[in-house]
Design brief:
The chain is mostly helical. The protein is built from 6 helices and no strands. The relative contact order is 0.16.
Length: about 90
Amino acid sequence: MNQTENINKSNSKEAQQHSEGSVALAIEEQTAKIPSDVFLWAAVGSIGTSLILHITGKKDDARFVGQWVAPFLLLGVYNKLVKIAGSDRVSRS
């Protein structure tokens, strides 16, 4: 057995030992279906909406909508991590 096979076998065992619960698996399954750029466009949209609200004098609303940017981007990162290294890596092996 070569070194690459040993590493793959070790990674598979580790992934199985640290498997997710049924709720996390269900969330990851649904999240992985969403294209990653949806979250990027949602963040850009909230920036634009916040700007429009600020220009129209609705500054409190603008701050509220502007605070959505970071969560959208974080959800995008989560989405990308699920696709790259989520618990589905065990079932793909």
